[in-house]
Amino acid sequence: MDVVLVAGTPGDVHGLVRPVAERISAVMSAADTWVFISPSSHASGREVRVASSYPGVRRAVGPFEFLRYLLVGIAPRGFARSGKGVIVHLGGDLIYSVDLGRRLRYPVFAYASRAMPGAKSVSLFLVEDERVQASLIARGAAAERVRPVGNLMVDGVGVRMGREDARSRLGIGEHERVIALFPGARPREVSVMAPLLFRAAELLSRVEPNVSFMLCLSPFVGTASLEQLFSSTRYASRIDGSAARVEKSAGPLEAVTREGVRIRIETVFRYETMAVSDIAVCTPGPVCTELAYLGVPHIVAAPLNVPSAVPIAGVSGLLCSLPFIGETFQRRAVERLKVTSRFVSITNQRAGRMIVPEIVGHVRPEDVVIPCVELLGDAARRDRMSRELREAAGLAGAADRVVQAVQRVAVGQPDSSSARA
Question: CA-to-CA distance for 388 and 357, rounded, in angstroms?
Fold first, then answer.
């Protein structure tokens, strides 16, 4: 049986494809699992490489091969229709999954964490919660085709140890306070966010004793060009940042800022880093959900200082990538983003209120430092925020429920929710 997982961005691949692929590998070892990466202006360029490393994934197919298959029918290398299968849409533009379903004559299941058009070609919507279920039904999806399954992003959180055990694994002292830094999942984001965070770390080190910094590097960024990404010269006129050099030794990589602040670079123990952290600073995205699930108080920073580095979704994002006129579209899209976005944190969006602080717009290092100092100095607020984050994160177990729906196709059982409208 073919199980084709479709996604478009680093967030889709890391937060949604990974837990589903891991669960399929565990309970459907005979299935051929493929990952098709759809075209996206949010892409990092490393989606195929990262998705190919997941357990059970036979191969990841890049956007060019995907489009070529849809347009002219040239199958991706190694891929052949087995005759039985299912498309599982996990992100990106739904039309790619629908068109692939038509070509392969497989049913399309779509996971949704927010309302999307109730496409008649989707056999089953697997949605985050009753809120999304109600929105889809209101948009015209048949009620029997919409099933709540939980928050798929939290199923990928891979730490199963407590705070003390995680500190021991990472060599963190008992009384050492840790601030985790998450500069984004795309190189262009990191080139903006890392220098800003480095400068914030320098300022924090002056006023907060016994604080260590750990920077979690996304697998969609890689380590080959860190020196270039950590340089503050590219956007020096728009960001008050600090450059850092990378030191390689027998231990973990470290970024050393101009003022000598040492920041550990973590590329492996992502969730252990979250678990040991007193607070974190991150960009918007799946990391907000992961931190919320683990109850880590955090600040979400969305700098719009460099419009070309801001991810823009949908058709607008594709227009922004056009030569010559793309920059104009990008500036206008960022201006709309400033006006229309009530919350940028996924967790705040779910809760419908401000649980974690958000900094959106022209961001300075001081804008990050102030809420960090406030959180570090208020243990009661951190405890309250931690409880509220866990409550807002949503239910785990979605990967199991998605795979159970796929298994019904494998054994030929009709699903009461899969009849097409």
Answer: 13
pLDDT the model gives residue 420: 42
Sign of the CA dihedral 120, 124, 127, 129? positive
Let me know whether 310 and 239 are in one domain: yes
Report the number of distinct structural domains present in the chain.
Answer: 2
Question: What is the C-alpha to C-alpha distance for residues 151 and 394, in angstroms, rounded to an integer?
Answer: 6
- Whole-number Å distance between alpha carbons of 227 and 243: 9
Task: Tell me which amino acid residue 214 is.
Answer: M
Element (DSSP H or E) covering residue 266: strand 262-266
- CA–CA separation, 59 vs 66, rounded Å? 12
Question: Can you give the pLDDT at residue 315?
Answer: 46
Tokens of 204: 């924090």
The tokens describing 337, both together, are 């983003």
DSSP of 96-114, one letter per residue?
A: HHHHHHHHHT--EEEEESS
Instruction: State pTM to two decimals.
Output: 0.89
DSSP 211: E
Q: What range does the domain containing 251 cover?
A: 163-392
What span, in angstroms and rounded, lies between the C-alpha atoms of 102 and 87? 10
**So what's the pLDDT on residue 320?**
46
Which of the residues in the chain have pLDDT under 70?
A: 118-119, 250, 307-341, 413-421
155 belongs to a structural domain:
no
Strands 253-257 and 177-182: unpaired
Q: Quick: pLDDT tens for 66-75.
A: 999 999 999 9
- Percentage with pLDDT > 90 across the chain: 62
> Which tens digits make up the pLDDT trace of 123-141?
999 999 998 999 999 888 8
Q: Under DSSP, is residue 281 helix (H, G, I), strand (E, B) or coil?
A: strand
